[in-house]
Design brief:
The strands form 6 sheets. Strands 11-20-19-18-14-17 form a 6-stranded mixed beta sheet. A 4-stranded antiparallel beta sheet has the order 1-8-6-3. The protein is built from 10 helices and 20 strands. It is elongated. Helix 3 (149-158) runs parallel beside helix 4 (176-184). It has 2 domains: 1-122, RNA polymerase II/Efflux pump adaptor protein, barrel-sandwich hybrid domain (OB fold (Dihydrolipoamide Acetyltransferase, E2P), Beta Barrel); 232-432, Chloramphenicol acetyltransferase-like domain (Chloramphenicol Acetyltransferase, 2-Layer Sandwich). It is α+β, with helices and mostly antiparallel strands. The chain has helices at 84-90, 105-114, 149-158, 176-184, 215-230, 243-255, 264-278, 322-338, 343-346, 411-426, and strands spanning 3-6, 16-22, 29-30, 35-40, 45-49, 54-59, 65-69, 73-78, 135-136, 166-167, 233-241, 284-287, 290-293, 299-301, 303-305, 308-310, 313-314, 351-355, 374-388, 391-405. The termini are far apart. Helix content is 27%, strand content 25%.
């Protein structure tokens, strides 16, 4: 009996996804654990492994198809002893869900390509094959260009023509580095046949371009709009003097072992986690008939990536020391930018921190990350004049703003949490107690 391969739910909140690439073709033998496809969700691109063994009889959803509903049959496997051609002939392609958009011309070409015995399969990212040099990007009979999902997304965002690139990845696959190098290269204005190249061309007034929104961008927009429409936000702002914090950080890094470098953000995470334990009413989310109170400070940290934002979670942050927090946060941020986080590493959390201080932003108010009850926006530390004991003084000050969902967190609760956070930040030794 044919085995149906369905669109998996790669996170508890996933409803649809983009079938970015197929790593197998019709006629390929598949074993349990083999990577068969890459699925792009709102947060990351994930590899999908086969659960059953068999021969790929039919591919029903083309690579590049967007908004494929979870549970949609995307391919068929013929089991041992079954004739793959008979399985493919007996099963008609699954009807397109209403939420699924029409495949692009590239997707249609890829589907036609995979339905023939001459289809070229994209290699698994887990089994790279060394190539001595860059080769022209391979294309199938339908004109499909093999590139990683991240490379495709960057190319779409920056207007890079993948067909003009040489692939240096496994089997000539185009990777992110090639696209970024092409995007950074000086632009050459296109010319008509026989006409000299125009130098210093300037776009006409009112010129614009349409950039396709990725699945990640669409879901981010949907969730943040929902957050602002349904969660009654209110904002609380305090200034924190951080000269003592900066001095403690320098001392800690001087005494730390090799490979440990504590950042200001690590100290902010530590202080936020301690404050959530001290004021547990702020560590909550609204769920209609109930308010969920979290037992641990599960801190989501906002990380900017290509095309959007992702919030990897540091679970039970209050139980971790500064050295461990530093290692975990650095690892999560790096793998977030590489798109290699597992779903459980960026799903959930009880409280979010968004730090734009490294960009020189003095103060901002962040939108709550649903379904959480609060988010802390952290600005840059800067020297400011202030009055201390009746005299003018100068101190390094960091402004933070707490956005709260008034359904779950009252004003007094948010204020008490900020008092606790400010106390930890201004007296960093208390974080070690």
């Amino acid at each position: 009996m044919a085995v149906e391969i369905k669109m998996p739910a790669l996170s508890p909140t996933m409803e649809t996804g983009t079938l970015a690439t197929w790593s197998v073709s019709v006629g390929d033998n598949v074993r349990s654990g083999d990577v068969i496809a890459e699925i792009e969700t709102d947060k990351a691109t994930m590899e999908v492994e086969a659960v059953d063994e068999g021969v790929v009889a039919s591919i029903l959803i083309a690579a590049g198809s967007e908004n494929v509903a979870v549970g949609t049959v995307i391919a068929l496997l013929a089991e041992d002893g079954e004739d793959a051609a008979s399985v493919a002939a007996a099963k008609t392609p699954a009807s397109t869900p209403e939420s699924q958009t029409a495949p692009t011309p590239e997707s249609q070409a890829a589907l036609a390509e995979n339905s023939t015995r001459g289809a070229v399969s994209a290699p698994s990212a887990q089994t790279p094959v060394a190539q001595p040099s860059a080769v022209p990007a391979p294309t199938g009979s339908g004109g499909r260009i093999f590139a990683s999902p991240l490379a495709r997304r960057i190319a779409a965002d920056r207007g890079v023509d993948l067909a003009a690139l040489a692939g240096s990845g496994p089997h000539g696959r185009i990777l992110r580095a090639a696209v970024e190098a092409e995007a950074a290269a000086p632009a050459v204005a296109p010319t008509r046949m026989g006409a000299p190249a125009a130098i210093g061309m300037v776009a006409a007034p009112g010129s614009s371009e349409l950039v396709a929104n990725s699945q990640m961008r669409k879901v981010i927009a949907e969730r943040l709009q929902q957050s602002k429409q349904t969660a009654p936000h209110f904002y609380l702002t305090v200034d924190c003097e951080i000269d003592q914090l900066l001095a403690s950080r320098r001392q800690l890094n001087a005494l730390a072992g090799d490979g440990v470098k504590i950042s200001v953000n690590d100290l902010v995470i530590r202080a936020a986690a301690q404050a959530l334990i001290q004021v547990p009413e702020a560590n909550a989310s609204w769920e209609g008939d109930h308010t969920r109170r979290f037992a641990h400070a599960d801190i989501s940290m906002a990380v900017a990536i290509e095309g959007g934002l992702i919030t990897p979670v540091i679970w039970a942050a209050e139980q971790k020391g500064l050295a461990e927090l530093s290692q975990i946060s650095r690892d999560l941020a790096q793998r977030a930018r590489e798109g290699s986080l597992a779903p459980e590493e960026f799903t959930g959390g009880s409280f979010t921190i968004s730090n734009l201080g490294m960009f020189g932003v003095r103060e901002f108010a962040a939108v709550i990350n649903p379904p959480q009850g609060a988010i802390l926006a952290v600005g840059a530390g800067e020297e400011r004049p202030l009055v201390r004991d009746g005299a003018l003084a100068v101190a390094t000050v960091m402004t933070v703003t707490l956005s709260c969902d008034h359904r779950a967190v009252d004003g007094a609760v948010g204020a008490r949490w900020l008092q606790s956070f400010k106390s930890f930040i201004e007296n960093p030794v208390t974080m070690l107690l």
